[in-house]
Design goal:
The chain is α+β, with helices and mostly antiparallel strands. It has helices spanning 16-33, 61-73, 108-123; strands at 6-12, 48-56, 79-89, 97-102, 136-141, 148-158, 160-167, 172-180. It contains 3 helices and 8 strands, in the order βαβαββαββββ. A 4-stranded antiparallel β-sheet has the order 2-1-7-8, covered by helices on one side.
């Protein structure tokens, strides 16, 4: 949408230690090894998007309220995520391709959680994302890098999910709500 200034999405964030001690050093290592030039995202911006609720000019409060209702209705246990490979998403424009962490079996639990959150969203009249490829973006670059293993894999346990207000183009994520995952 032209003129969009605000993005709304549900996400999982790694804990600070994972972001600073696993993801950031891995991003530096992979950036150098692949001769990429894109700027690595700030550690506080590493996340996994669960559902994109839209881009807007201003933040629609009724949508925020509905998203909060959906999130509050969900009961789910903490789960582990394991990212064991990295690759580029080729956007076919020849520039600004996302270079991301991905996982095989290690992301099965987040696929189930994303589906459960989608069902909760439907119950309050929201439209969940139809497609979901679990990933954590490390940087954007013009080059396209094929799939490569990540050793050791990046691991973290999700203990909460977040409704995020992103200020488009400013690199700022504002949490609007956090919901714990409980055993």
């Amino acid at each position: 949408m032209t003129g969009s200034t605000d993005r709304l999405f549900f996400a999982l964030y790694p804990d600070r230690d994972t972001a600073e001690q696993q993801i950031a050093p891995l991003a530096l290592r992979l950036r150098s090894a692949q001769r990429l030039h894109g700027k690595i995202l700030a550690t506080e911006r590493f996340h996994l998007t669960l559902h994109h609720l839209g881009d807007f000019a201003g933040l629609p409060q009724p949508l925020v309220q509905a998203a909060c209702m959906a999130a509050a209705s969900l009961r789910y246990r903490p789960f582990e995520l394991v990212f064991d490979h990295a690759a580029s998403f080729d956007n076919k424009r020849g520039r600004n391709n996302a270079f991301v962490l991905q996982g095989g079996e290690g992301v099965a639990a987040v696929v189930d959680f994303q589906s459960a959150l989608g069902e909760a969203m439907k119950k309050v009249g929201l439209k969940p994302d139809a497609r979901f490829t679990p990933h954590v973006t490390l940087l954007y670059d013009d080059r396209v890098v094929p799939v490569q293993p990540v050793t050791p894999p990046v691991r973290w346990t999700a203990h909460e999910f977040v409704l995020v207000h992103s200020l488009i183009g400013r690199g700022v994520h504002v949490p609007l709500g956090r919901w714990p995952l409980k055993p």
